[in-house]
Specification:
Layout: H1 2-7, H2 11-23, H3 31-46, H4 50-63, H5 67-83, H6 87-100, H7 107-120
């Protein structure tokens, strides 16, 4: 239902549907709930509400234990920081992704973005 509503650009309705999954007693810590949390964050990102998207991406990374989804959330959270002009914070998240989730599909891209955001932040030397 959430995806259907999002495809119709009814992002408020989509988020309501996703939140039902996130907050349901049967599904609250499941992978399905983690994916719903990711979709909540993505809906804000799509609307260019990067502050709200950032909060929702970080919520997924903190509350769920699914490394592939957690790394996807960190990648997107770092992109939010970049789009907000917060390059130091973006670099910190890219670095955290590489160190915490090195085996995920997002680690290589995060390593590249880490270098770019460090330079944009005026800190060309890696840590």
């Amino acid at each position: 239902l959430g995806r259907c509503l999002a495809s119709r650009a009814d992002f408020d309705g989509a988020r309501e549907a996703y939140r039902k999954v996130v907050h349901s007693p049967a599904g609250e810590k499941t992978e399905t709930a983690a994916k719903a949390q990711l979709m909540i964050a993505e809906s804000y990102f799509h609307q260019k509400n990067y502050e709200a998207a950032l909060r929702e991406f970080l919520r997924l990374e903190i509350l769920y234990a699914y490394p592939e989804l957690q790394s996807a959330a960190l990648m997107q959270a770092a992109k939010c920081h970049e789009l907000l002009g917060e390059f130091t914070q973006a670099a910190d998240l890219y670095e955290r992704l590489v160190k915490t989730y090195p085996e995920t599909e997002f680690a290589a891209a995060a390593a590249q973005r880490f270098d770019a955001t460090r330079q944009a932040a005026g800190k060309p030397e890696p840590r």
